[in-house]
Amino acid sequence: MAILKTICAIAAVVMIGCGGKSDSNVEVVPPRQYQSMLDNDPNAYLVDARKPDEYAAGHLKGAHLINWLDTDTFKQSFEDFDKSKTIYIYCRSGRRSNEAAVWLAGNGYRVVDLKGGILEWNAEGMPTE
Q1: Contact, 37 vs 110, CB < 8 A?
Q2: How does pLDDT run across 29-82, given as a tens digit for each residue?
Q3: DSSP string covering 11-28
Q4: Buried b (16+ CB within 10 A) or exposed e, 67-98
Q5: Could you give all domains of the chain from N- to C-terminal order, each with its CATH number?
Q6: What is the pTM of this model?
Q7: Which residues, in sequence order, are CB contacts of 121 under 8 Å at separation 6+?
Q8: Do 63 and 48 contact (CB within 8 A), yes or no?
């Protein structure tokens, strides 16, 4: 019974940590809120942090492919980026985009990350190209 309580406590901490704001000022939002924020932000810059083959299989309209796994190229892509723009970022499940978002936020960029990535986006029936 004690083991079950410990597992439940750890699960609760993990679940609480997966939503809202991360420790690095990255806003993590669910798909419909993400879309609404994109639609209402004239300074939005949408980034797909996945690999090229994943992007080709379907991506959000207007997304710029900047592969986080090619970290050096990813970081170079933002050297002269206008920091007045908000970067909206996503990947497949949210892990890669959150890593990238933490790096971006740590370097002074405003970042919004898609909770659950494109998997959650697709599960909610949201559009892709």
Answers
A1: no
A2: 999 999 999 999 999 999 999 999 999 999 999 999 999 999 999 999 999 999
A3: HHHHHHHTSEE-TTS-EE
A4: bbeeeeebeeebeeeeeeebbbbbbbebebbb
A5: 20-123 (3.40.250.10)
A6: 0.81
A7: 31, 34, 60, 90, 114, 128
A8: yes
